[in-house]
Write a structure and sequence with these properties.
Strands 1, 2, 3, 4, 5, 6, 7, 8 and 9 form a 9-stranded mixed beta sheet that branches. The protein is α/β, with parallel strands linked by helices.
């Protein structure tokens, strides 16, 4: 089965070089890498990619800077594989990375696979905070198949994730109205989940996040808040509203309690749709007010999670 690695890049030629080198050692041979350049200031990333064309099947696409969602959509349109593997230009792939995703592909049941993540060099890596603090505890609590976990879409991270190309296209790909940092991947996985896909953990599909400078945390979270407002207003469903309510409280989110709450609310939607609709509207009103206050003050920080 052919895999298409969807890899956005922008002005990170040094990291891209090391990332592409890691794909030369993959145990799964049938794959292409579709690199979408989101308006790099020079051709350095493209020159890096050219050096690997004798060892890797690379499609290099360029477009003006339009953001992460548009960049990935461009790469998806250029992909030919049955399975899309989303990985960033700063993620070193372990030798079994693609094989781990391919092994969990299910032609009969659409499946989203969340691959494992660590930080730094493979020989001296450390825990990746997002994976260790959120994904790993959920896997321990619910198992790798995430059975009985109602909200697997909250784990979305396109640093290491795979999904069938057919289903990604069917749900419309990434929403390009999400700008700046965060939630365009969660939004996609939310639609994949409600489109019938299951979500599982793929511990064997491991990659390593190279450390690099990032934008100021405050700037990132303001962008995240604005994307959260779009997310909560986009869907007339109580699960999206309950998620946004929990993550704008500025206290650590109790994930098992949130999962239990959303499971109960989904049951209530069938039994008492009017009451659930009213609760959703109340959540959304509170979320809007919180986002306005947090955006105005600039004081917001991601609240984290607890167990």
């Amino acid at each position: 089965m052919k895999l298409s690695v969807i890899m956005p890049t922008r002005d990170k030629a040094e990291y891209l070089d090391r990332t592409l080198a890691s794909y030369c050692a993959q145990t799964h041979a049938d794959f292409e890498i579709v690199i979408a350049d989101d308006g790099s200031r020079d051709d350095a990333p493209e020159r890096v990619a050219a050096r690997y064309r004798d060892r890797l099947a690379i499609e290099y696409l360029r477009h003006p800077h339009r953001g992460r969602a548009a960049c990935r959509n461009h790469a998806i349109r250029g992909a030919s594989g049955e399975l899309l593997v989303f990985a960033d230009d700063d993620r070193l792939a372990s030798p079994g990375f693609l094989a781990g995703h391919a092994r969990l592909f299910d032609a009969e049941r659409p499946t989203v696979v969340l691959g494992a993540q660590r930080r730094g060099e493979p020989a001296a890596s450390s825990p990746e905070p997002w994976w260790e603090d959120t994904c790993a505890p959920i896997a321990r609590a619910y198992g790798d198949l995430l059975e009985r976990f109602h909200i697997p879409w909250i784990l979305a991270s396109t640093g290491n994730l795979s999904a069938p190309r057919r289903l990604v296209v069917e749900v419309g790909g990434f929403d390009e109205a999400f700008q700046g940092w965060g939630l365009e991947d969660l939004d996609l996985c939310y639609r994949l989940h409600h489109g019938g896909a299951r979500t599982i953990i793929g511990a064997g599909a491991l990659n390593y996040h190279q450390a690099h400078p990032t934008a100021a945390e405050g700037t990132r979270w303001i962008e995240w808040l604005r994307n959260l407002e779009r997310f909560v207003e986009k869907y007339d469903r109580v699960d999206a509203a309950a998620y946004a309510y929990a993550f704008t409280r500025e206290i650590a989110v109790d994930v098992p309690a949130l999962d239990e709450l959303i499971g109960a609310l989904e049951r209530d939607t069938s039994a008492a749709p009017a009451s659930t609709r009213a609760l959703r509207e109340a959540y959304v009103a509170i979320v809007r007010a919180r986002i306005f206050a947090l955006d105005w003050s600039g004081a917001h920080r991601f609240p984290g999670v607890r167990w």
